[in-house]
């Protein structure tokens, strides 16, 4: 049997705060909360979740891996506003302003994008 993706792991200084931010952004829930690990997901039987682990060092550079989020085209700006109200912020990583995505960061500075719906990307 080949391997499969189990969790995406995000290092954090504040486990509960960052886990709750992402749970609210994705409309997921906390599945497991331990002193050194918090796991969120849409449900316990979901094939992939996000695991938050403590780290002592500060984030210094742009992420080498980031999440792309999407929603319906008519909901995009409202969703960006909602994410900003939850504690996200807009960040500039050198984009030109003509991209079809918006770059945001979570409360600890981890970049992610809100992209247009997948069906609009397929020609």
From TrEMBL:
Alphabetized GO MF terms: lyase activity
Lyase in keyword set: yes
Keywords linked to the UniProt accession: Lyase
Matching InterPro entries: Glyas_Bleomycin-R_OHBP_Dase, Glyoxalase_6, VOC_core
Domain spans labelled VOC: 4-117
Protein name, as recorded: Putative enzyme related to lactoylglutathione lyase
